[in-house]
UniProtKB/TrEMBL annotation:
Xref: PANTHER family: LACI-RELATED TRANSCRIPTIONAL REPRESSOR, LACTOSE OPERON REPRESSOR
InterPro entries: HTH_LacI, LacI/GalR-like_sensor, Lambda_DNA-bd_dom_sf, Peripla_BP_I
Keywords, comma-separated and alphabetical: DNA-binding, Transcription, Transcription regulation
Name of the molecule in the record: LacI family transcriptional regulator
Source organism of the structure: Isoptericola halotolerans
All residue ranges annotated as the HTH lacI-type domain in the record: 4-60
């Protein structure tokens, strides 16, 4: 079925194509009555007219598309919330967000040529050659949401784990284990968080933490039993999904949480409130982070310098699991 064109709208509305163009493109200074504008818009809606993004880009000399490139990470509540807020803020400026999950199998340059975005946002730093290619093509680049010191989605993954150990130590725990994810795509973050647990334990003169990979989709019964036999009384989990596997493993092993084993996660996912028992977790400041990301995009488009990184640290949300 052929797509509806502006000429079709003009014929159905009984006006010129120029008038349709003025109305649908909100051309400044166009002398078109409000009644005619409403008639053209309602006719376009009735016919199912959808303007061509490519044609609009040619007319304006710029695109209204912002591409957000996600690295090869599993998405979760933090990234989902960040993208939702970014989409809402940029929509207020008439910009659309396209999320692209990058895989190493295809060059990013193919994406720029296919969609000609106005700006590209990376949730991890881009390669230098990609940045040069985009800038040469006139595409604004927001290379990363990370601050200059290398943290990701907060001051650092390291600091998230320090908060976990601080909380467990404040509850009197001396022997801590770290439940790391099994997904290799999260290795960078898992390693950084384990380093935070290790450093926090050393700073508090606690024994060196044990570590084990815990699948998020099955009870960590064997791991929990082994830790408990070794005297571990608290577990800092990589995130809330891994923490739920630890909770299920403790239940299967006949252990009581938090009396026999305390558990703390990261992310404050909605499910953390309804686990048995409800999960103590570290909530990341998603709203300030997403606002910073949106402000960074708008600053680049407006030719301004980057906004300051928000000073809104992560916090522990205390529930029954600790």
């Amino acid at each position: 079925m052929a797509s509806v064109t502006s000429a079709d709208v003009a014929r159905a509305a009984g006006v010129s194509r120029t008038t349709v163009s003025y109305v649908l493109n909100d051309t400044p200074g166009a002398s078109v009555s409000e009644a005619t504008r409403e008639h053209v818009r309602s006719t376009a809606a009735r016919l199912g007219y959808a303007p061509s993004a490519a044609a609009r880009t040619l007319r304006r000399g710029r695109s209204d598309l912002v591409v957000c490139v996600l690295p090869d990470w599993p998405t979760g509540p933090v990234v989902d919330s960040l993208l939702d807020h970014l989409t809402d803020v940029l929509a207020e400026r008439g910009l659309f967000v396209l999320v692209h999950h990058h895989r190493d199998s295809r060059a990013l340059a193919e994406l720029w040529r296919a969609v000609t975005p106005r700006a590209v946002v990376g949730l991890a730093p881009f390669a230098a050659e990609d940045v040069r290619a985009m800038e040469q093509a006139g595409i604004a680049v927001v290379g990363s949401v990370e601050p200059a010191d290398g943290g990701a989605f907060d001051r650092s993954q390291h600091d998230l784990a320090v908060l976990q150990v601080d909380h467990l130590a404040s509850r009197g725990h001396r022997s801590v284990a770290f439940a790391t994810p099994t997904d290799d795509r999260l290795r960078r973050f898992g390693d950084a968080r384990f380093a935070g647990v290790r450093d926090a334990c050393a700073a508090r003169r606690l024994p060196a933490p044990r570590q084990a990979a815990v699948p998020a989709d099955e009870p960590a019964t064997g791991t929990v039993r082994a830790w408990h036999a070794e005297g571990v009384t608290a577990v800092a989990a990589y995130n809330d999904e891994v923490a739920q596997a630890v909770l299920a493993g403790a239940r299967d092993a006949g252990l009581t949480v938090p009396d026999d084993l305390a558990v703390i996660g990261v992310d404050d996912a909605p499910a953390a409130r309804v686990t048995t028992p409800p999960l103590t977790t570290v909530a990341q400041p998603v709203t300030p982070q997403s606002e910073h990301l949106a402000a960074s995009v708008l600053a680049v488009l407006d030719g301004q310098g980057p906004p300051p990184w928000p000073d809104d640290p992560a916090r522990v949300v205390v529930r029954s699991s600790t």
